[in-house]
């Protein structure tokens, strides 16, 4: 007769197994940062919920806060995906503003390259942004194979990509040096890059700001750029920056003036003057630009 040996209560497999002494443990697998898994956010249930939220909630809210004016949509009227949208970056408002301004055929099948160290540093933040804006983690301080491969795979599957070549929000209103991520992906897969200039979002919420102030904004879409025969990443990255610089000039002046200065390589620099902080702030002239009257949120306290 078989004798059943009673198993001590509360032991494996009901609890985690013990680790043998003297055997080194392998490093724990990371679940945050660049290793955060986002595939679930691109499955149909999440896509449907995100589309409904974006159209029914995000678009009206963005219209209320940012009052966007769209320019250059005719330049991408006949363009089909997959497409890389490369834009300047001044505020957290840039991403929802750009996403909700995209034509419908792009809007609901677009992922956003987001800093792994900021948007995916905790599980709850990673989950939130993966769902809300279809964010994917990318390393901002170094080039990693995982980030590049994920973005390339999604483009190959027909997803569009929003990327901010500066790698982060401007600290003072002037553009930071552009990096080559968008150009690298475009050259690798021969994808078109749409340069985009976003104006006005820093007035709504600047880096380090604690309140929203409604303001008018302008999103200008440029003519799609395609990698030339034998063109390398560095050359295409320079063309992308040049195109966004010309779009900024177009928004500030007019199409003809901007085209003429771009052809002469005389467009005003996005990086601003090489001068002290006060001179750069004066040259930016933010206080002189349009700001829609409206309440500050959250409201500031006042003494009675």
What does this structure look like?
This protein has 304 residues and is an alpha/beta fold. The chain has helices at residues 44-66, 94-101, 104-107, 116-119, 123-133, 145-156, 181-189, 201-204, 233-252, 255-263, 277-284, and strands at residues 68-71, 84-87, 110-115, 135-138, 160-163, 193-199, 217-221. The chain contains 11 helices and 7 strands. A 7-stranded mixed β-sheet has the order 1-7-6-2-5-3-4, with helices on both faces. The chain is globular. The chain starts with 43 loop residues before the first helix and ends in a 20-residue tail after the last helix. The chain has one domain: Glycerol-3-phosphate (1)-acyltransferase.
| Measured distance between first and last alpha carbons | 89 Å
CATH level 1 name: Alpha Beta
Stretches where pLDDT falls below 50 for ≥5 residues? 287-304
Lateral strand order in the biggest sheet: 1-7-6-2-5-3-4
Rg (C-alpha, Å): 23 Å
Structural class: alpha/beta
The total tally of domains equals 1
The mean pLDDT is: 85
Secondary structure tally, helices: 11
Fill in the CATH topology: Glycerol-3-phosphate (1)-acyltransferase
Outline type? globular
The appropriate CATH architecture is 3-Layer(aba) Sandwich
In percent, how much strand structure appears in the residues?
Answer: 5-15%
